Amino acid sequence: MFGQFVRGEWVALAAVFMEHGRFPMNIRALSAGQAVLIPRETLHQFCLQRPTLALQLLGNLSQKLYATINQIDWLTSSSAGERLADYLLRLHPSQQDTQPNAQVRLPLNRGQLATKLGIRAETLSRLMAEWQRQGYITCRASYITLCNLDYLRALAAQAQRPF
After folding, report:
1. What residue ranges define each of the domains in the chain, with the CATH number in brackets?
2. Which of 13, 18, 44, 71 has its CA 20 to 30 A from that of 135?
């Protein structure tokens, strides 16, 4: 899994501007939704006729590249625990919440989550079991209760990028 998309995001934008026009991945929806397929020739024509649109697409593509570079840096310079804590806190709707026992729902299965975090599934399982034993989290199916937000925030702070 290379990414998750939300409403309004472009998918495979880079492929539109590559000479071969192919994208080496596929996409799968987790829930019902709608998508718009714009033929690459049509998008090229729009860009030629509307420079502002071309600049917006270039900005979007640049943001994706920037996020990918940050993701690589994040994966190579932080520990598995730091990455997991950061990920769980990003799922939390109110990161400023001071209440204990904040619950989040994992949108990925454990194997996908391990891949996203750049760790083996066994490492993820051991880490989550240790955190449960320590009382930092509790797990029930795809729901995780964050029992010690202070611990998770302190751990995640080391994995977060200042830019």
Report:
1. 13-76 (no CATH), 79-157 (1.10.10.10)
2. 71
